[in-house]
Automatic annotation (TrEMBL):
<protein>
    <submittedName>
        <fullName>Uu.00g030800.m01.CDS01</fullName>
    </submittedName>
</protein>
<feature type="transmembrane region" description="Helical">
    <location>
        <begin position="15"/>
        <end position="33"/>
    </location>
</feature>
<feature type="transmembrane region" description="Helical">
    <location>
        <begin position="129"/>
        <end position="151"/>
    </location>
</feature>
<feature type="transmembrane region" description="Helical">
    <location>
        <begin position="182"/>
        <end position="202"/>
    </location>
</feature>
<feature type="transmembrane region" description="Helical">
    <location>
        <begin position="214"/>
        <end position="232"/>
    </location>
</feature>
<keyword id="KW-0812">Transmembrane</keyword>
<dbReference type="GO" id="GO:0016020">
    <property type="term" value="C:membrane"/>
</dbReference>
<comment type="similarity">
    <text>Belongs to the SAT4 family.</text>
</comment>
<feature type="transmembrane region" description="Helical">
    <location>
        <begin position="54"/>
        <end position="74"/>
    </location>
</feature>
<feature type="transmembrane region" description="Helical">
    <location>
        <begin position="94"/>
        <end position="117"/>
    </location>
</feature>
<keyword id="KW-0472">Membrane</keyword>
<keyword id="KW-1133">Transmembrane helix</keyword>
<feature type="transmembrane region" description="Helical">
    <location>
        <begin position="252"/>
        <end position="272"/>
    </location>
</feature>
<dbReference type="Pfam" id="PF20684">
    <property type="entry name" value="Fung_rhodopsin"/>
</dbReference>
<feature type="region of interest" description="Disordered">
    <location>
        <begin position="345"/>
        <end position="372"/>
    </location>
</feature>
<feature type="domain" description="Rhodopsin">
    <location>
        <begin position="35"/>
        <end position="277"/>
    </location>
</feature>
<dbReference type="InterPro" id="IPR049326">
    <property type="entry name" value="Rhodopsin_dom_fungi"/>
</dbReference>
């Protein structure tokens, strides 16, 4: 061994795993976003502000992935001692460059979730005011993080280059950036937890089967995982202050990637059920045509089950979840969406076996509801 390298750690590289993780999560999130936008545009036929903000969140997350790839190229994931001075400067530059994009992606993703929750509520002013307050705080807290980061040193290039062309400069006390970073991380974890648990208060009053409430609530509460990622990320912030920062910062980068893409994935999964249901039905039709009805019935047994109501018309409809209004008592004529659903059954009765006879009481048509 060269005596110059005696006592040094091995020149391992953790950066490859970082890049693979970034783009694996990026692929999953981008595919789910594409499925979400297709569902909203062609099945539900209604694209909202929650969808467009989620698109922006994915764009910022993909830019973060590019920045992570560049920082790994210049040495993040290796021990600092094995890097050239130029590599160290470039690595630090890309670490700081990720600040506007990574927290920005997470914040915009949470804003998208807040907009989705507003869409599910029936003009509940108190809850809407709470969500708008949370949105405002997300914007303010993350904008201040960006401002403090790039206002910390003068000139700003002194933030990442302190020995090259910019040998002299001034910076604030390191505790300013560190303390605000801890605050931003704690608030990020808090907002993740709030948005993960908030759907429970909405689903409780929606006119949905209890099983549907459980499934939707579980899917939308997966954001608790993002809370864990944000909390661990906050703890890992101290690794930016070590001498071997290009090696020690890897865990921090892992966790801010995890928070970004977990938010995106958890926000998109509950919205694509109509797309899955529609394609599953198409698959069963093809299976019935190719292999016979017996095989198709093993895939989807609902086709062979008798209706529990009088009549034989069974259809499926995909409705946007926001069309379901909170329960408001038992008085008739107060829920336009319920009336619209019941109207399908009335029309079937009028055009059915009874001809011009008065409609027979009872539901003549069963409707399976898929929500998004």
């Amino acid at each position: 061994m060269d005596p110059a390298f005696a006592g040094l750690p091995p020149d391992d590289d953790k950066g490859v795993g970082l890049v693979v993780t970034a783009w694996a999560l990026g692929a999953a999130g981008t595919i789910l976003l594409s499925m979400r936008m297709y569902t909203r545009a062609f099945i539900v036929r209604k694209i909202g502000r929650d969808d467009w903000t989620m698109v922006l969140s994915v764009i910022l997350a993909l830019i973060t992935n590019i920045v992570v790839t560049l920082m790994v190229h210049y040495g993040v994931g290796r021990h600092t001692v094995f890097l050239t001075e130029e590599q160290r400067v470039r690595a630090v530059f890309y670490i700081w460059l990720s600040v506007p994009f990574s927290p920005g992606s997470a914040a915009v993703g949470k804003i998208s979730i807040a907009f989705l929750l507003m869409r599910l509520m029936n003009r509940d002013r108190r809850r809407e005011a709470f969500l708008w307050t949370l949105i405002a705080l997300l914007i303010i807290v993350n904008m201040l993080l960006i401002i403090i980061t790039f206002a910390e040193c003068r000139p700003v290039t002194f933030l990442w280059d302190r020995v090259g062309t910019v040998a002299h400069g001034t910076c604030w006390s390191p505790t300013v950036q560190q303390d605000y970073g801890y605050f931003q991380g704690a608030f990020s974890a808090f907002s993740d937890l709030v948005l993960a648990l908030f759907p429970i208060t909405i689903l409780w009053n929606l006119q949905l089967p209890f099983r549907s409430k459980l499934v939707i609530g579980f899917l939308m509460s997966l954001g608790v995982v993002a809370t864990v990622a944000a909390a661990v990320k906050t703890v890992e912030l101290n690794n930016l202050a070590t001498m071997d920062f290009t090696w020690d910062a890897v865990e921090l980068v892992y966790w801010f990637l995890a928070e970004n893409w977990i938010i995106i994935i958890c926000a998109c999964v509950p919205t694509i059920k109509p797309l899955i249901v529609t394609n599953w039905e198409n698959f069963t039709r093809v299976a019935s045509y190719v292999f016979g009805k017996s095989l198709a019935s093993t895939i989807d047994t609902k086709d062979d089950q008798p209706s529990q109501f009088t009549g034989n018309s069974n259809q499926q409809y995909s409705y946007s979840l926001e069309s379901y209004q909170p329960l408001r008592g038992t008085s008739r004529g107060t829920d336009r969406d319920s009336l619209r659903l019941l109207q399908h059954g009335q029309q079937d009765r009028d055009a059915g076996q009874h001809g011009s006879n008065p409609a027979v009481p009872g539901i003549m048509k069963t409707t399976e509801i898929s929500v998004v």
